[in-house]
Amino acid sequence: MPTSTPSPPAKSRRSLTFLAGFLKNPREVGSVVPSSRTLVRRIMRLGDAAGSRVIVELGPGTGVITKQMLAEATPDTKLLGIEINPLYLRTLQRDIRDPRLTIHRGPAIEIGEALASIGESSADLVVSGIPFSTLPKQEARETLERVRAALVPGGRFVAYQFRSEVRRLADPVFGRGEMHQGFWNIPPMRIYVWRKR
């Protein structure tokens, strides 16, 4: 079920919506513009999105990565987006019509409850763009512990971040992760990958 490439006006509208969401609540949004196509492809490859049956996206924003995951996913893939920003929720519900996608309104820490709501107890892949550097430390740690608990053995957690705070928080939970540079994005992003052992 491939998704079509958005027209230039749709891309512009999505970029403006993304910026408006950032300006309204910068602590919840990790960037001022949506992720670049090159960054999205790299995240998909590092996370093995095409080979994952259950995928969770923490902070899907306006759906740039969501659409690419759906384009690469199999017909039986379940994609769960967890989004707290009402503006982004409306955009996702308006712009992405795919029966494989479920959007949960709430914080990332609700990953377990959100998975249960789609009849699943675990995920093969969790992708996150939420800015862990702006979350309260206890909430960030607990969110990462719940992400780990929600992954199948061997499952991957991929976080793309502007700052490196997520590594200091996640390494004690998952063990040492890999870091990849994403210079082709504005702002440049670091892509971190952890595998549940």
Low-confidence stretches: 1-5, 14-34
Look at the structure and give the mean pLDDT.
85
Which sheet architecture does the biggest sheet show? 7 strands, mixed
Quick one: CATH superfamily? Vaccinia Virus protein VP39
How would you summarize what this structure contains?
The protein has 7 helices and 7 strands, in the order ααβαβαβαβαβαββ. With 197 residues, the chain is of the alpha/beta class.
Can you tell me about this structure?
There is one protein chain. With 197 residues, the chain is α/β, with parallel strands linked by helices. It has a single domain (8-195), classed as Rossmann fold (3-Layer(aba) Sandwich), CATH 3.40.50.150. The chain is 40% helix and 23% strand. The protein contains seven helices and seven strands; from the N terminus they run ααβαβαβαβαβαββ. α2 (37-47) crosses α3 (64-72). The longest helix is centred in the first third of the chain and has 17 residues, at 8-24.
Summarize the topology.
Elements: H1 8-24, H2 37-47, E1 54-58, H3 64-72, E2 78-83, H4 86-95, E3 101-105, H5 111-117, E4 123-128, H6 137-150, E5 151-161, H7 165-174, E6 178-182, E7 189-195
Please name the defining characteristics of this protein.
globular, disordered N terminus, 40% helix, 197 residues, Rossmann fold, alpha/beta, seven-stranded mixed sheet
